[in-house]
Fold this sequence. Notes:
The chain is α+β, with helices and mostly antiparallel strands. Helix content is about 30%, strand content about 30%. The chain contains six helices and 15 strands. An eight-stranded mixed sheet has the order 4-3-5-6-7-8-9-10, sandwiched between helices. The chain has a five-stranded mixed sheet with strand order 12-11-13-15-14, sandwiched between helices. It has a two-stranded antiparallel ribbon with strand order 1-2. The longest helix is centred in the N-terminal third of the chain and has 20 residues, at about 1-20. The protein binds 2,5-anhydro-1,6-di-O-phosphono-D-glucitol and manganese (II) ion (2 copies).
Amino acid sequence: xxxxxxxxxxxxxxxxxxxxxxxxxxxxxxxxxxxxxxxxxxxxxxxxxxxxxxxxxxxxxxxxxxxxxxxxxxxxxxxxxxxxxxxxxxxxxxxxxxxxxxxxxxxxxxxxxxxxxxxxxxxxxxxxxxxxxxxxxxxxxxxxxxxxxxxxxxxxxxxxxxxxxxxxxxxxxxxxxxxxxxxxxxxxxxxxxxxxxxxxxxxxxxxxxxxxxxxxxxxxxxxxxxxxxxxxxxxxxxxxxxxxxxxxxxxxxxxxxxxxxxxxxxxxxxxxxxxxxxxxxxx
Length: 283
Ligand code: AHG
Ligand code: MN
Ligand code: MN
């Protein structure tokens, strides 16, 4: 696993440089989710593919920006599912964006996630790594080198509310929940970038991040293999919860297609319990 983490550190520096130096325009292609691709989406994907190709323990790759499985090494052990540039539409307004990595062993489903990592490209490059047997570990760059900062833990109850999706397309029960948190004094913290939004909650003690089923995205928008499940591990290992609209753990998702999405809720225990009540989830 160390070889993969070292590769992710190299990827982080190379994508950060591309963000600062390269063209921010759109390419003439779209990805498997039908989204227009920025040249940076495509370039970040290439940087990741070329860097991981040197790592012998990686068998296959699945990318947000490509269809299907990309085979690397017959004797590899892991399949890495990744979002090369998350929130890429925010680059041209100079907001933070990220990369997300899910490291799976065997069939691509939640219970086979071995570890996850994400990188935040902001004023500094920061990275969080989670595995099943310890709390997420935060790394920050100082003078361009990653330094281990320490473990990340969510409080039982947070102060931040990050409501995703188009509000006019929310179900009534979801609107009631979000409004109830604001009436308790929660602060709105939502940039439209999953990585910086979930990173902020993790580092500021917690709250609720929600991307529900909406009338325009009935299965949610966020992709299971390389957005939802990697963050579910982060939040559970940090002492919080990560569930879908039926109260199932997102770590138990079994996608039928690599680009399947899921409604998703990540947060501290108090807020997730409030969500279960609003959604009449009794488990
Ligand atoms: P990506 O740029 O990889 O397609 O991801 C964008 C996602 C995610 O970063 C964010 O949480 C979500 O889009 C925001 O969607 P809305 O603008 O619909 O809230
Ligand atoms: Mn994304
Ligand atoms: Mn992306």
